[in-house]
Amino acid sequence: MKSPLEGLRVLEIGHFVAAPFATRLLGDLGADIIKIEPLDGDPVRQWGEQLDGKSLWWSVHGRNKRSIALNLKVPEALAVVRSLVAHCDALVENFRPGHLAKIGLSDESLRKLRPDLIIAHISGYGQTGPYKDRAAFGVIGEAIGGLRHLTNHAPGGSELPPVRVGVSIGDSIAGLYAAFGIMAALWQRDRPAGDRTGRSLDVALTESVLSLMEGMLPEYGALGKIKAPSGGAIVTAAPSNAYPTADGQWIILAANSDRLFEKLANLIARPDLLSSQRFQGNYQRVANAAELDRIISDWTRKRTAAELTAALTSADIPGTKVYNAADCALDPQFQERGMVMTVDDPQLGRVLHYGVVPHVPESPGAIRWPGPPVGAHTEEILVDLLGFDAFRIAELRASGAI
Amino acid sequence: MKSPLEGLRVLEIGHFVAAPFATRLLGDLGADIIKIEPLDGDPVRQWGEQLDGKSLWWSVHGRNKRSIALNLKVPEALAVVRSLVAHCDALVENFRPGHLAKIGLSDESLRKLRPDLIIAHISGYGQTGPYKDRAAFGVIGEAIGGLRHLTNHAPGGSELPPVRVGVSIGDSIAGLYAAFGIMAALWQRDRPAGDRTGRSLDVALTESVLSLMEGMLPEYGALGKIKAPSGGAIVTAAPSNAYPTADGQWIILAANSDRLFEKLANLIARPDLLSSQRFQGNYQRVANAAELDRIISDWTRKRTAAELTAALTSADIPGTKVYNAADCALDPQFQERGMVMTVDDPQLGRVLHYGVVPHVPESPGAIRWPGPPVGAHTEEILVDLLGFDAFRIAELRASGAI
To answer: Which CATH class is domain A240-244+250-321?
Structure first.
């Protein structure tokens, strides 16, 4: 029962979200991840809520990785990076385009040390083009990719700004694309008819987001139609929305087929809706969705989220309360499938982790250890992988490289 | 300059968004995708805006795929599926869990025909557990994965419901995980030390979403903290928000470091902010973010999006207008990098497509053709791949299988 990526070794020279998320995915499936960190660590170690000065997010974000702390401003540290590259199948980085080349780690120079190295560059706008040197904050990339325009209420519906998704969704999607691209390049390299050749990937956050925009671009091109946000609703199907509950929560309800709408009308004791011309078929229901949403809200507002979930489930109408952190943690399906699990973290105690996606029942991924302290594996890597002796390590320490 | 996945053949028995998105990613990088469709086609062919009764989204969603139209209720069609499986490396499906087994296409039976077949099952909740048989609408999976709770304004900020992201983000993320998992399983199978063994993957939409939730789960577990939505802002950094413009648009602006905040204060002619204790350092700025956002809004509201973008760019402050479909289509960076490109679609004319992600300069992916008509490749596949003769094809037609 080996994990799928056992035997794969990946070097991360990354920070923040995108590159470390890509290596989390590879590490979850069994790859040996060597993460190069500055001596004071990846800034994510300070992000979000802390316990005893340690980030809880880091326990997840850094899991299954070996941390080697290197000061890349010291030439001796760059020599260590070059030595490591020879032992790795792939490298993931998310500095500004050109930064690694500037410090002497160009793709070409790295391939002299490891000719079949796969290199994934992740950046805001890509490695080429007029915007490549711009600062690449996630919120800006999501806005340029077209996502932020759509996370809003319908035009005229609110004076408030379009919302952020609430997590760094653009970075995570770019990380997913990088992990996919690395595996595609490794398959091209390593399969029986493979070419044993290294390649570079160029993953842009803006483009990763744009690629998910479905009909937005072709519909604009052919019809000049600019896709508009639609708040909690779906523009092409009704009723489907989030509705308020008596206990201050929201319930999602999707009764957007004739059969489901009939069940809903009966459940809310409004069979009269079924004989109204205004709600006959999806087209009419979409046209009169606002009225329908008011009627449904009048029913949901008098009941708690728990009552509504039970009523919808027993009527076989797709619906759920909107889950918050507690709901996710306690959900029986997530628990049963190991998607919410407790991990013993030597620094933090018992920590809730997300399980591994995807499930591979015949060779499952695993959480082998939680995010380690900065440089926890520096000596282990230098000794076991590179064969450095104590004298050489002392020299590195004296130079400030480690 | 071969695409990375040339030589890979993938069978899709999918519909809607998740499975077809996974095969779009694989096809973009060069895989031969054989999509099995019902005789009346994938329902996405009817979704979104149409031109002459044909979906524009389909031109993108179905690109690089060969379509074979089969009525899986006819035994002769199932025999065709079995024959195809022997020629494929991987299979992707997104029916309800257990459906394929029920019609005689269990993983075990398919592996008798192709022992090293990789099978990716995509579903709402996964192939196991108490919820596995529930209807898996994307909006419901996103709510259970914890995303919908966060796409809202801060508590007390709005009476309106939490918004949908505007595209089927949960399905797309599940499709990305499936594509990544397939390539990981293929590498495990095909690399020099590979085990030449087929495996099954179990990708759940809810879990794919939950896996991106960063600190949400560990912070709840350790501190009981329930991550709250924060509207356009980031809870841990200020100022960073979307601000209104004079021409009814929104501008994103991220001046959430001391250096950037100083530039912004000077740009908006409010150097007095820099000497106020209330805005000294990120901690104070977050505490007084609402006041700061009002001050910044007073400045943005008097200027157009174009004026603001120019001012922020020349002051080197990360910022952008919130792009809509037209902005994405016309963006010079997307154009230069081939991320927005025109494709000749025999059914629709010239159609704007998203380019291929990731870029692989040494062996680029490509849009070989746009989404084809239903069954456009039925005969080609039966003749060239399976070696059927005209008599046998006539029999299939007579049985209603094709």
So the answer is: alpha beta
